[in-house]
Amino acid sequence: MISICLEFLGMGLSITGTLLVMVACGIPTWKVSAFIEGNIVVAQTIWDGLWMSCVFQSTGQMQCKVHDSMLALSKDLQTARALTVISAVMGVLGLMVTIAGAQCTNCIKTESTKARVVNAGGVIYIIAGLFVLVPVCWMANNIISDFYNPQIPSSNKKEIGSALYVGWAAAALLFLGGSILCCSCLNDGNTTYPVKYAPTKSVMQNGDYDKRNYV
Fold first, then answer.
1. How far is CA 122 from the centre of its chain?
2. What gap in Å lies between CA 177 and CA 36, rounded to an integer?
3. pLDDT tens readout for residues 28-55
4. To the nearest 10°, the Cα dihedral for 162, 163, 164, 169?
5. CA 20, 183, 192, 98 torsion: positive or negative?
6. pLDDT above 50 (res 192)
7. Of 80, 64, 72, 69, which is closest to residue 30 (Cα–Cα)?
8. In sequence order, what are the beta bridge partners of 54?
9. Cys staple from 101: which of 30, 60, 72, 118, with CB 3.0 to 4.6 Å?
């Protein structure tokens, strides 16, 4: 019973983390223009994402443009695009593997094999979390380094966007959910062991035991 509850908990956290990875991959707020010094009078906000760049006017209008070429992007955006897509795909793959080995399904008959499959799903989720954590941390490091670099003009400095926070949350949920799935099939006290019974001694018609029982 405990292992089933842990499976549902781990799957719920992992599915939520996978959905957050897809959200972080899609929203264009990885880099946001910083309002510092004379930049505060600017009446527009520039958002840079993995797939498009958007300009948000103070009047409420927003215009977005899809990136023309992937090769024209910076290295951190190229890497983030590739790794987040891989993370989302691995999250879907981990869901399929976990469902196949879950105790509430009959895809696999052997309990020991089910446990190994669920553990494999947990490992896939942990790897997916690592794939989304690397580009998010790399992007944040580049943004902070450029922000405090005096050689970069204030108009070109960026701030951490909401997509990075979503990515960190997704990585945390994937790590936690994958770890729970890996621990859900450990010995929970309900492990059954085969019981061997000694053969009963046959009794003769006259009430005596068969002499073969004493050989």
1. 9
2. 40
3. 889 888 776 555 545 678 888 888 888 8
4. 90
5. positive
6. no
7. 80
8. 47, 64
9. 118
DSSP per residue over 150-167, as a string? TTS-GGG-EEE-HHHHHH
This prediction's pTM: 0.79
Nearest Cα neighbor of 31 from 17, 62, 52 is: 52
Please give the DSSP secondary-structure letter assigned to residue 202: P
For tokens 């009794």, name the residue.
203
Task: For residue 122, count CB atoms less than 10 angstroms from its CB and return exposed for 0-12, middle for 13-18, buried for 19 or more.
Answer: buried
Q: 7 and 184 in contact (C-beta within 8 Å)?
A: yes
111-114 long-range contacts, CB within 8 A, separation 24+ = 114/185
- Say how far residue 103 (Cα) sits from the centre of its chain: 21
Structure-block tokens of residue 190: 């309900």
Tokens of 206: 């006259």
H helical segments located in 37-186: 75-101, 111-147, 162-184
- What distance in Å separates the CA atoms of residue 110 and residue 161, rounded to the nearest whole number? 47
Tokens of 1: 């019973």
Reduced to 3 states (helix: H, G, I; strand: E, B; else coil), residue 85 is helix
Q: Name the region of 101 (left: φ>0; alpha: ψ -120 to 50; beta: rest).
A: alpha
Q: How many other C-beta atoms lie within 10 A of the C-beta of residue 135? A: 25
